[in-house]
Amino acid sequence: MAHPSPPAAHDRGRSAPTPPDSTAWDHPEPLALGTAPLPEYGSGSLADLLPTLAAGMAVPGMIAGIQELTAADRNCVFLIDGLGWEQLKAHPDEAPFMTSLLASSRGGTGRPITAGYPATTATSLASVGTGLPPGAHGLPGYSARNPQTGELMNQLRWQPYTDPRAWQPYPTVFQLAHEAGVHAAQVSSPAFQNTPLTKIALSGGAFHGRLTGEDRMDIAAEQLAAADRSLVYTYYAELDGAGHRYGVASDTWRGQLMYVDRLVQRLAEQLPPRTALYVTADHGMVDVPSDEQHRFDFDEDWELRAGVALLGGEGRARHVYALPGAENDVLTCWREVLGEQFWVASRDEAIAAGWFGPRVDDRVYARIGDVVAAAHDDVLIIASEREPKESALIGNHGSMTPAEQLVPLLEVRS
Predict the structure, then answer these.
(1) Which in 9, 26, 29, 65 has the greatest CB count within 10 A?
(2) CATH at residue 271
(3) Over the stretch 329-345, which tens digit does the pLDDT of each residue have?
């Protein structure tokens, strides 16, 4: 199978200069773009995980970006949707097994890595599966403008439909591993088997659809043992859904965390010899109060709407597409209205700062908003008329705050 070469240097794109050290996660200052704590692209982001594991299995072209990980013959990534590092550390009683992995016990170690910007599912899953940052794989948010049609495209639901391979042409790490003789498999819900997002982000080798979490853990363990070299991915989504609907402070969310902790232990106890299991997530989450002080309604705010053709992204990570000629006015207005609580950048400023990675491919450039707004405080830009369901969510994510950006990387070895 012929693939376009993965862009090790992201050729044909716009490069970002090496940013200053801006990974001070504790108290970034508002207003100044340079204080936004950048994802650790190249050394400690989700995009670096699978290439590091594949490099340890001698897959050609793969680079080990996360230096402290030790090579293993068999590797498994268990991605728990919505489990941020800060949320995990705040709930040791609900997650005793994963908490035990935060220290060097049970043969494992635990540390945080960064999701990448924006910290949202479609973007992060593409980063995981392709081993590329958003500026290269080209899924820069929950929804983004398709430059070919001028329409907003929801990149999680893939609506309206566009050719997946034209949208994201690079091979996945699973495809490259499979072609190199590594047994590659994905174990997830049957509903995800044929989705465009799976095809462009997580395909390669064999897909095994299972409805229950327990079945997924058991099949993942079987797939790991199926060959001398194996790369297996499995996924659990319901923790994220509980956080969105009820918040990460809810009993429902804590109950889901207890369940997923048991799933991790179930898989860890079945690992075949010479295996490394890595538990991670696609983003964390922030509970946002449901009042006007914390939720700016785009559909009710004439200042935010002025000069705007399309509103993309999501509440904490917005892409704003201006009417032709109104780009500077929209940027100025959004900074005046939101600049105390959001990092607000022009497209070129966000690219130059490295928000989407070290380079942005030419095909991706116009998918990014003319204005990009990332929440600093516990606030949202909702759109009550055009996005009624999303506007009602309690738990939200997308931006570069530690609660959203930091995800666990927990390791168990057999």
Answers:
(1) 65
(2) 3.40.720.10
(3) 999 999 999 988 999 99
